[in-house]
Every structure is written in structure tokens, then in C-alpha cells.
Amino acid sequence: MKDLTFGTLLAVFEEIFGTGLFWAMVVAAGIVTLAYLYVLIRDRAISWRKFLLAQLSMPVGAVAAVWFVLLMTHSHLRDIGGPVDVILILGIAAAGAVGIAILVYTVQSLLAGKRGRGGTATR
After folding, report:
1. Phi/psi of residue 76, each to 5°?
2. CA-CA distances (angstroms) from residue 98 to 83, 93, 94, 115, 122?
3. In a 3-state reduction of DSSP, which class is residue 114?
4. How far apart are CA 107 and CA 50, in angstroms?
5. Residue range 22-51, pLDDT digits in tens
6. DSSP state of 48
7. Rounded Cα–Cα distance for residues 82 and 103 (Å)
8. Are residues 50 and 105 in contact, defined by beta-carbon separation less than 8 angstroms?
9. How far is CA 62 from the centre of its chain?
10. Is 115 helix (H, G, I), strand (E, B) or coil?
């Protein structure tokens, strides 16, 4: 693998996760992203209470992402071989943490509806 291209990355991810699961994750990420943008546009402000609850879920997302990748690659933490592996694990954990925070914030906002004046939920 001389060149790192977008096509090469797609092939590697499809090999690791399987074609169906990989594209299902891409579609799920797209749907959550669009829902998050919808919530931000609809509410025109960030709810700091929802944001705090979303941040509290971040460690769960980090651990779940690392566990999922280790499961899919049939690896263990004892297989970490060097600094690049540690950086990759930290990157996976960061992506999982941010992803779960966005998901939790979006789900809270969609379930609660838009807050009107006086703190009442409107739909």
C-alpha cells in the first residue's frame, strides 16, 4: 500500500467491518448528522442542560467505540504494539465520545420538542 487514497480507505474499512455493516454505519452517521443539524436550526440555540447530559455520556461512547473496533478486528488491548497504535486507539475513543454526545443531544432534543416561552414544550 504505497498510496493512501480515499478508495484505499474505503476498501480497508469494508474489509474490517464487512460491506453491509460499514455502509449501514455510514448511513446511520448521515441520518444522525442531518437530525442534529435539524435540531440546531429548529431550536436556534444550544440547550446547555442537554449538552451537559450529552457530555456525561462521552466516556461510555469512547469505551464502546474502542470495544467495537477491537471486537471487529479480533484484537485485544494487549496487542497494542507502539505509539501509532495508541494514537489510533485514542482517535477511535475520541470519535466514539463525540459521536455518542451528538446522538444523545439529538435524541433528547427530538423527544423533548422545541421549548417555547415559559419553558413549555411545543411541537
Report:
1. -135, 165
2. 22, 9, 6, 24, 28
3. strand
4. 10
5. 999 999 999 999 999 999 999 998 888 999
6. H
7. 32
8. yes
9. 9
10. strand
Q: CA–CA separation, 1 vs 16, rounded Å?
A: 16
**114 vs 41, 85, 108, CA distance in Å?**
11, 43, 11
Cell numbers linked to 83: 505509539
Give residue limits of the domains in the chain: 6-122
| Amino acid letter for position 65 | A
Q: What is the pTM of this model?
A: 0.82
User: CB within 8 A of 93, min separation 6: which ones?
Assistant: 62, 63, 65, 66
CA distances from residue 28 to 1, 24, 52, 82, 95 in whole angstroms, order as listed: 29, 6, 23, 32, 15
Residues 12, 1: Cα–Cα separation, whole Å? 11
